[in-house]
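User: Show me sequence and structure for the first protein, then do the same for the second.

Assistant: Starting with the first protein.
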Amino acid sequence: MIFLGNMKSYFLLKNHYDENMLALTHVLGLKKRKPFQKT
């Protein structure tokens, strides 16, 4: 049961990390496409 709980928390952290990375790459992509515009 402890192992399953650790796996669940690991996947929650991984999903949160992946979402942050996607948002970061999206923002960087926007900056690369439009470097002259300030957000």
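Switching to the second protein now.
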Amino acid sequence: MATGYTKDVDFTSSFIFETWLLEAIHTYKRYAVNELMILQRKKRCTLQKYLVLNHFDFIYNQKEQRAYKISILSYAI
């Protein structure tokens, strides 16, 4: 099924909807492809932002740990 239902649904209404959806995708190919490209672009941008934010958090945590180690070493000396 194109929609990927997660719950059981009535077969007849599901079949009618799936048929309509596939017919609409077939009829309006450029629109369907455009929508898929927009979704893919949004997903990629979201992933890039997530990776950048996590990278900055990682670098910040490394700097904090390094500063903590230096303060402990200077205290021990």
